[in-house]
Amino acid sequence: MATDERPGQPTVDGAKNDVAEYLKNLNGFNVLRGGLIVLISVLWLIPLLALLYIAVQPSLPQGAFWSLPESIALISNLGEAWSDGNFGNYAINSLIYASVGAVIAVFLASLAGFTIAQLDIPYRDGILFLILLFTFFPFQMYLIPLVKVANMTGLYNTKTGVSIIYITIAIPFAAFVLRNYFITIPNSLYEAARIDGLSKFQIYWKIYLPLAKPALAVALIFQWIWIWNEFLFGLVLTSSPDARPMATALALLGGRSADWTVLAAGTLLTVGPPLVVFLLFQKHFVRGLLAGTQKG
To answer: Which member of 6, 65, 202, 216 has the greatest number of CB atoms within 10 A?
Structure first.
């Protein structure tokens, strides 16, 4: 009886041939590279697995560290960390900062990137260098001036003041990413749109911005995750839970609770949203990183 094999459908013989071809092309360099990748992955995963292991424990193990827990207490540890650290209020603050800050920063950065990449303005490279200049220095050197300015303007310990700081810091990197993408778009497209009577802003809004969706996704994800995880500015520029972000809640929880299982659970609460955002938009993130690598 003849077998029903559809064109393009993988067969057992085809799989064997693929494996044989892979083994044939395998050499010492590929083995070494694969081993290094596995080693680095394991080194990255061990702290994460240890964190999860501690978070599920009813109490910190006294004997062998990797012994099986007597019971799973993850839900109770998460609940205790949430209530003791007042994570709900901090999470809302961070959600506002990350969402509003990332969107506004990327929008302003797209305007800057389009201007530098496509418009004929003097000293374009110098302007780009000035934008990136502020990212060359450690952020700690800005703390004292920012605190003084925030006090003088009445923005200290306010959501508005913290949001402005996050937006300002996020713009340079996003502008660099978007500018590098915009320069890959042929200039003939811009010239054709001008001949059709579109203004510069219409060209940016109707043509270049839709084409830059992959780069916009990368910039948005990067800035969202950075703002959510940011700790230093959120701690120094605020003094009450009304304005402090999520990362500061974990530090404050460490001063209130001496239970390592609760602290580990609080860490999971902190890193959970960025992980979810990355997993949901992973396809767009990878596509955006690869976009614009070839001109034309």
So the answer is: 216
